Amino acid sequence: MKKIAWKSGLFMVLAGSAAYAGAWSGSTTISTIEAEDTGSGSRVYLKFSSEPFVSHSCANKSGYYRLGGSAENIRMVTSLAVSAKLASRPVRVFWNIECSEGGTSGYPVMSGIELL
User: Which of 1, 11, 5, 9 is nearest to 79 (CA)?
Assistant: First the structure.
């Protein structure tokens, strides 16, 4: 299930159910957006001016966060991320408390973004 909420001028996208485990970051800005297309599906990664979750347990400590959720969620979060980057707007991001390769392997997976 996907949730989209508009309140007090804030727009956010979050994939998952109401009981979705995870955490929202504090305010940060997006410094880099990278897409990887290896032929077996594309992946989108975000890097921030200050890392949203410094003490995450994922093995990849490069500062990049991989977008997760459904293809539709990834498109919407990517769109919001590009808008925030171009406008230099701060954001908060939602980390699923999971890593892209399972367990503690790979990148931290984020599935939501809120424009501040």
Answer: 11
What is the mean pLDDT for each group of 10 consecutive residues in the chain (116 residues)? 40 46 91 86 91 90 93 92 96 91 93 93
CATH of domain 2-115: 2.40.50
Q: Is the pTM of this model over 0.85?
A: no
Residue 38: the pLDDT is: 74
Domain boundaries, the chain: 2-115
* CA 102-107-109 angle, 5° bins: 80
Q: Strand 64-67 and strand 91-99: pairing? A: unpaired
- CB-based burial label for 18 (10 Å; 0-12, 13-18, 19+): exposed
Sign of torsion over alpha carbons 80, 62, 107, 93: negative
**Tokens matching residue 115:** 């424009």
